[in-house]
Specification:
mainly beta, 2 helices, 10 strands, globular
């Protein structure tokens, strides 16, 4: 019994030490994602928000108008939710070089930090999220994966105090 318990404990410890993916893990993947190329022009995205249990609690569409002037980009997003609610977010991006980007938006606390490598891009930011008359600051670990020149998939984990609240999944299509 002791040997079995020791083996199970060692296995659990090994799993607990598994590292999270980093953008560098995707450096060799193609096609290469350059935000200033993909997010340029008109795009449409379709998405869902799932709660901790995996239940879809919100569906939405995003119409985007994107433009770049040198290293500065603007992503103008118009959200329409399945319940008819509308929302707008305007991201202001800055390309820093070496695949690094920063971004700001009116409902983002501070500055979002991003890193691109290969076909992947990871954003980390805190969003002010209105819920039932209150506003909560929640953290996003946001990953984008370029599938081809027109399609990109996006998966973001939303958390508060390190507790996973849910996920946002999006499929972007370039017009």
């Amino acid at each position: 019994r002791r040997s079995l318990l020791a083996a199970l404990a060692a296995g659990a410890l090994t799993l607990g030490c598994a590292s999270a993916p980093t953008p560098a893990d995707y450096a060799a993947e193609k096609p290469v994602l350059a935000l200033e190329q993909y997010f340029n022009g008109d795009l449409v995205a379709h998405g869902i928000f799932t709660d901790r249990s995996g239940k879809v609690v919100r569906r939405f569409t995003v119409l985007m108008k994107c433009s770049w002037n040198g290293d500065d980009g603007v992503l103008d997003e118009d959200f329409t939710y399945s319940d008819g609610q509308k929302e707008r977010r305007v991201w202001r991006l800055k390309k820093l070089g070496n695949g690094r980007y920063t971004g700001t938006a009116d409902d983002v606390v501070g500055t979002a930090q991003g890193q691109a490598a290969g076909n992947a891009f990871q954003w980390a930011y805190t969003l002010r999220l209105p819920v039932d008359g209150s506003v909560y600051e929640v953290q996003f670990d946001d990953w984008m994966y370029l599938v081809d020149e027109r399609v990109m998939l996006n998966k973001a984990v939303m958390s508060k105090f390190g507790i996973r609240l849910g996920e946002v999944t999006l499929a972007f299509t370039k017009k």
